[in-house]
Amino acid sequence: MNIRAATLLDRDDIHRVHWAAFAEDERSLVAQLAVDLLTEETSPKIISLVAELENSIVGHVAFSPVRLDSNDNFRGFILGPLGVLPGYQQRGIGSQLVERGLQMMTETGVDILFVYGDPTYYSRFGFSADAAERYHPPYELQYPYGWQAIAFTKEAARRTSANVICVASLSSSALW
Fold first, then answer.
1. C-alpha dihedral, 113 to 45 to 109 to 84, nearest 10°
2. For residue 104, what are the CA distances in angstroms to 58, 75, 100?
3. Degrees (nearest 5) of the Cα angle 47, 95, 58?
4. What is the pLDDT of residue 155?
5. What is the pLDDT of residues 129-174, one digit of tens each?
6. Are strands 71-84 and 56-68 parallel, antiparallel or unpaired?
7. Measuring CA to CA, how many Å separate 112 from each of 14, 78, 119, 122?
8. If DSSP codes are grouped into helix, strand and coil, which group holds residue 145?
9. Which residues does 96 contact at the CB level (< 8 Å), separation at least 6?
10. pTM of model > 0.85
């Protein structure tokens, strides 16, 4: 398997992955989010990775920068969406995409990485609700137990309460 940075040429394949990977009530919204994140200009840049098998994209993940309402020197990201074509799930492809992203986060000096997802799945990478509890998500969460984080620095782990502000593509209450 090859994991590489996504390009605009991967747009249709990325849409297809998320459309197939998510339930009918979520697929349209999540697939469009994944495509929108490919073209959104941010600083730092959004990291978008694809997994290829036999020259075909079978998985995708995005890591978007976030900021806090209380600190300009903070470097945070949020993982999402993550999707793998159903016929390729349970093969470790999603895990490899997440692990590559985690490696990139630590190499670039990120303070914290958030995720809003299944605690059973994401806890295997070190995400926890405890690490996220002092950070308030941008919207009220439908599933509050899914708000998790990995604090890479002591400052991020000890922080007092702060509000997380996401990139424009994630700034829709329908996603939360």
1. 40
2. 21, 13, 6
3. 70
4. 87
5. 999 999 999 999 999 999 999 999 998 888 788 999 999 999 999 9
6. antiparallel
7. 26, 8, 17, 15
8. helix
9. 1, 3, 51
10. yes
**30-58: per-residue pLDDT in tens?**
999 999 999 999 999 999 999 999 999 99
Q: Is 3 helix (H, G, I), strand (E, B) or coil?
A: strand
- Is residue 78 within 8 A of residue 66, CB to CB? The reply is yes
Cβ atoms of 49 and 5 within 8 Å: the answer is: yes
Sign of CA dihedral 75, 40, 85, 7: negative
Which of 91, 93, 102, 106 is CA-nearest to residue 153?
106
Beta bridge partners of 165: 67
Strand partners, 76: 66, 112
**Tokens 């990995």 correspond to what residue?**
150
User: How is the chain split among helix, strand and coil, in percent rounded to 5?
Assistant: 40, 30, 30
Tokens of 78: 């949020």
